[in-house]
Amino acid sequence: MKFYRSGRDAMARLGLAAPAEMAGVEARFPVYVNEYYLGLIDPADWKNDPIARQALPDVAELADRSSSFDPLAEEEQMPVPRLIHRFEDRVVLLATGRCAMRCRFCFRKREWADGAELADISECELAAAAHYLAGHPEIHEVLISGGDPLMLPFPRLKQLVETIAALPSIEVIRIGSRMPVVWPERVTAEIAAFFGEVPGLWFATHFNHPREVTSEAAAACGRLIRAGVPVVNQSVLLRGVNDDPVVLEALFRRLIAIRVKPHYLFHVDPVQAVRHFATGVERGLEILRYFRPRLSSLAVPTFAIDLPEGGGKVALQPQYGCNGEYYDIHETKRIRYETAPGELSE
Ligand code: SF4
Fold first, then answer.
1. 32 CA from centroid of ligand 1 (Å)
2. Cα(29)–Cα(274) distance, rounded to whole angstroms?
């Protein structure tokens, strides 16, 4: 796979000249995108293209210099390097800072700003993380994230997963990876077969737009699913990319058709250099309301915000009624609902 490390080269691949201001943005937040993902962009309308907006620098990234780079306070919740322990029963393990693409909306942009990159996890770091987990039997779930853990060479990835899976208190391992979206062929049959053998292993990927659900991406998810790995999707609501109910309906329909469950739709975190993607929470609620009469619950993800200062996720829902009266699915009438006989009688 060919990778591009500059906006100028990526634009040239599209047959376009890079705007002058792009260089200033990528000096701060580098470009990294591959042949496959660039091929999903419509060059004729690249400025409005939802795929280009996820991959190519935008001057808006430099507009906000006051927001935090780490509003979720991840760095403060690391009892040992690489391990974020925010909630009692689960942790996040940062396996590497490398990714197959640098997404412009990335909430861990701090890890790759100015060309910095978190190295692959070392033997010592993995041993320290495993030691911490062994000493905290209340932890039952490990999300292996990064960066993208599928950037690790397969033997290293295998060793890491086996080390975590061998801990008696760990019941669930979640692999957080955008690889089916940005480099589908990297999800090899070998990786899928290995994941399928690990009890309690789930795969969480990150499609944001229906055009990302290509035949190659569907095949990558299919390899995992056929190997016995459940696959869920976490999208981010992104202004100018997918903040349109028709676009998201198409995305979620395509995902359930390939047996990938839409799990979360997140509002953009208040992270420096990504805030121009924020839509406001109300937009997400409007989109959920649009879905209600149209989409089966299988296709509808939980809409959520992740609170700053490590406050955790809050699932949000439109209000459909109160005091025992609720709007019907088309919101044309209110219907009384008694949870016990006579509850609502005067
Ligand atoms: S793949 Fe994930 S971690 Fe990597 S740049 Fe994209 S959003 Fe960030």
1. 11
2. 11
**From 74, 175, 178, 209, mutation site for ligand 1 pocket: most ligand atoms within 8 A of C-beta:** 178
**What is the CA(333)–ligand 1 centre distance, in A?**
44
pTM of this structure: 0.96
Whole-number Å distance, alpha carbon 99 to ligand 1 midpoint, is 6
* Residues in contact with ligand 1 (CB, 6 Å cut-off): 99, 101-103, 106, 108, 146-148, 178
Q: How far, CA to CA in Å, does 70 sit from each of 34, 111, 269, 294, 309?
A: 27, 10, 9, 37, 9
- The alpha carbon of 108 and the centre of ligand 1 are apart by a number of angstroms equal to 7
Could you list the beta-strand ranges (E) of 286-324.
Answer: 302-307, 312-316, 321-322
CB 187 within 8 A of CB 223: yes
pLDDT in tens, the chain (346 residues): 999 999 999 999 999 999 999 999 999 999 999 999 999 999 999 999 999 999 999 999 999 888 998 888 888 899 999 999 999 999 999 999 999 999 999 999 988 999 889 999 999 999 999 999 999 999 999 999 999 999 999 999 999 999 999 999 999 999 999 999 999 999 999 999 999 999 999 999 999 999 999 999 999 999 999 999 999 999 999 999 999 999 999 999 999 999 999 999 999 999 999 999 999 999 999 999 999 999 999 999 999 999 988 888 999 999 999 889 999 999 999 999 988 888 887 6
H/E segment holding residue 84: strand 83-87
**Six token digits for residue 284:** 């997400």
CB 131 within 8 A of CB 180: no
Domains of the chain, earliest start first: 1-60 (no CATH), 64-319 (3.20.20.70)
